[in-house]
Write a structure and sequence with these properties.
This protein is an all-alpha fold and about 280 residues long. It has 16 helices and no strands. Helix 8 (about 130-135) runs antiparallel to helix 9.
């Protein structure tokens, strides 16, 4: 990475501070928020954003089932084992990854620099911009400020590293895009799994969608709520989700830029929008 030692240290400290905000409850990170110039995040807002609405784990965004653990977590833990180090707890948590990346940046030697590049490309840039963009549209304003600053910091690191033509392994191994005639289970799985649909959809987004199209919102897991929406008005629900996918594709371009990772996410979301829009036309 080509930044000066002084600038590199400043960026590392910024990323470490941003990671602390995501990891620690506001009672212990209030000074960090103040140092960053960010508004105070209450305990309720922190829990809502990072526990209920959008847990910041790579596995949820890069795993085939959109859930914690699994192969996506194993991939992150394998990075640490390759360095001869025991994986940290919650190794795929965004806060943990930011702290780890900052620590590697600060070491300054060639081996650490190489590891930092790998960590950033494979385990941060591969999913975090889309996550941050999705969260900031549905969380409290104070958390949205944190999302915007974190996204800006990651963009600065990506710009410094230069656009890459390589797609991260998790995306190369991703499931195929949604096929044109999915069954209901396949469709619902894709709707709540970012790597399948290219869409980051929080429970609040689903509730807003139900209100927008005029159907009842059933509290519970997003998949359950979406199934109920489809049963009430399939055409309106599919049209709404197609619009969500189309908007996500455009936001991916803004969040990632034009490198290979950004193009992958954009293409996945656009493919979903096209398929689901076609399903909406044929729905009752």
């Amino acid at each position: 990475m080509t930044t000066s030692p002084t600038l590199s240290a400043a960026r590392a400290e910024l990323l470490r501070a941003l990671g602390v905000v995501a990891l620690d409850p506001p009672s212990t990170s209030v000074r960090v928020l103040d140092a960053l110039g960010l508004s105070e995040i209450t305990g309720a807002e922190h829990t809502e954003a990072f526990v209920l609405l959008a847990p910041p784990h790579a596995a949820i965004h890069l795993g085939d089932e959109g859930k914690l653990g699994g192969e996506a977590l194993d991939r992150v833990e394998g990075f640490w084992r390759a360095l001869g180090t025991t994986p940290p707890r919650d190794a795929d948590h965004l806060g943990v990854l930011l702290l780890a990346y900052a620590g590697l940046r600060e070491m300054g030697d060639d081996a650490a620099d190489h590891a930092a590049r790998a960590l950033f490309h494979e385990h941060l840039w591969s999913w975090a911009p889309g996550y941050l963009d999705g969260l900031r549209s549905s969380c409290a304003p104070a958390v949205a400020q944190w999302c915007e600053l974190t996204l800006d910091a990651l963009r600065a690191e990506a710009l410094d590293a230069g656009a890459s033509d390589d797609v991260p392994l998790a995306l190369r191994d991703a499931p195929e895009p949604l096929r044109e005639t999915p069954d209901k289970d396949e469709l619902l799985d894709a709707m709540v799994t970012p790597i399948r649909s290219g869409v980051v959809l929080s429970q609040r987004d689903v509730a807003a969608g139900a209100d927008h199209i005029g159907v009842g919102f059933r509290r519970g897991e997003r998949r359950f709520a979406l199934k109920a929406m489809l049963e009430q008005d399939a055409r309106a629900t599919l049209s709404w989700f197609a619009a969500q996918a189309d908007a996500a594709a455009r936001r991916h371009t803004e969040s990632y830029g034009v490198d290979a990772t950004g193009r992958w996410w954009q293409a996945r979301a656009f493919a979903t929008a096209e398929v689901v829009a076609g399903l909406a036309k044929g729905a009752r």
